[in-house]
Amino acid sequence: MTYTVAVSGKGGVGKTTFAALAVRHLSEATGEVVLAVDADPNYNLGAKLGTDPGRTLGDLREEMMVRGEEPPPGVSKHEYIDYQIRLALREGKGFDLLTMGRQEGPGCYCYVNNMLRMFIDRLAEKYAYVVIDNEAGMEHLSRRTTRSSDTLFVVSDRSKAAMDGATRIARLADEMKLQIRRKALVLNMADPEGRAPERADGFDAVYAVRVSGMIQAKMTETESLLWVQRLDPAFSDIAKAVDSERKRL
User: pLDDT tens digit string along 120-133?
Assistant: First the structure.
């Protein structure tokens, strides 16, 4: 059975850092290869995981539109899409990365998108753990990028704008009746004690992630988080939040 984590939140609150460290923790703690899906058009999950994203599914989608949705001669449409998605997978240490890439251009992409979703769903079933880094804001919900997940982690800092945005994401997920078992608010860049309120409206749980001095210091040197030690306060808090949620389901 696949456990799926989706990560959302306002831009600049540490959403992709949370997703990358969640991928690392799940892989290192379980020994499983994690499917990491970068669903943000402004993709950088691969950089956080120290991996070149390579070819994106946006590239594949555009190729299919140019071909009039037809594969090369002698190849069925299903075989073509399945093969191309597997080519787009980038293998990393303990994870496979799938990068969605840019949004649609002009024209109707409904058929192509539905085909891609079907094959991605089939691919995800082969993994014990899937982590999806969504784009900032709420567009991924309205387009149903995050259609089904066990836990939706909504990352926020303590600013009013970020907290209001987190609340709207939780509310929209309910209004659209998405298949999300639990919604968890993550208060990032918390004080050293890592305190978090016990409850927040619209969420099943609240977690705090402490500031990491080392991550902050190295931001100008590298995007990769592969060097972060497990005892780092941010990594430790993210690991605890992910473990707490997966043990509930």
Answer: 788 888 999 999 99
